[in-house]
Request: fold
Amino acid sequence: MMTIAERLDSAYGRITQAVKKFNRREQSITLLAVSKKKSINLILDAYEAGHRKFGESYVQESVEKIEKLAHIDDIQWHFIGPIQSNKTKLIANNFSWVQSIDRLKIAKRLSEQRAPNLQPLNILIQVNISNESSKSGCTLEEVSQLAQDIDTLDNIKLRGLMAIPEKKESLEQQIHAFSQLKTCFDALQTQYKEIDTLSMGMSADLEAAIAAGSTMVRIGTDIFGARS
Ligand SMILES: *Cc1c(COP(=O)(O)O)cnc(C)c1O
Reply:
């Protein structure tokens, strides 16, 4: 059995290889370790191996973990799951990043409910690139207006875009899907100066995402094992 430290090393190895293969800048990709449905002990293993950025998808479960780990002050928690409006207060005050914003109403609530003593919440707009009805996310066409509206909110800082494209057979098809998001990201970057994060790529498709310009990959299974 590989340890979490070894699995993290191997995930970083995959990222480094893709960075070389696709001529991306070194150090330009952040790894988010997705710890949903995984125990506090596994999170601590990753922490002890030097990892600091974790992604969670379920509000109840994640808030319990965050409270139990509250004595550690340098973990950066990212919320990456679907958001119901009755859960926004918990999300606003336990996370420093929220990657799954797809409508203004939720962004407004997060901004209103974030405690004033905390730094502005970093957010990403989630885009449903493949227009799958089963997935969250706004359409590519909606991004521009949503960004404009979010930009007026006080306790929120728009940092970029996130997507989970549908599975594709070939690397070329995967790259094509991710490239649409990259084009949208580049346009956003010319309008807002704090945009620096393009969150795309998971265990199954991180090479394609890095080829297309990802700056953050979200890896669960390859680090913590399959989820039941
Ligand atoms: C679960 C999840 C991941 C991690 O997926 P793996 O296939 O386990 O690497 C990444 N992003 C989001 C939004 C997720 O919900």
